[in-house]
Specification:
By secondary structure, the chain is mainly alpha-helical. The chain has a domain at 11-85. The protein is 53% helix and 0% strand. It is built from 4 helices and no strands. Helix 1 packs across helix 3 and helix 2 packs across helix 4 (59-85).
Length: 114
Amino acid sequence: MGKQTHPRTPPDVVDGWRVRAVRGDRLDDLTDAQREWVWRSLLKGVRLAEMLACGGLSQQQYTRALPRIERWYKQRCLAYKAKQGQTPDVQVVRPVKPLPKRKRRGLWFFGQGG
């Protein structure tokens, strides 16, 4: 595995983000990557017991929030894919190998070339 390029976010902070998302916050203050990480972890049920205890939430509240979080996640994925599809068609120009220089040859019967 490679080295991390950014410091790891403590689990209790991420649990706080999960609680906010379950309560209906779209987490606009986070980066796209962090937001997607939180939504994906909620959909998978990562650290569910810890998150519910941290926010004082019930299992029912979590269950009711799942369709909303799934909708947000799907909208984000579709927006990302649409953004990628908007790139203009770029014509790739491959470099052409230059022709070799012609050797200047003398007349063969004078013995200057081969």
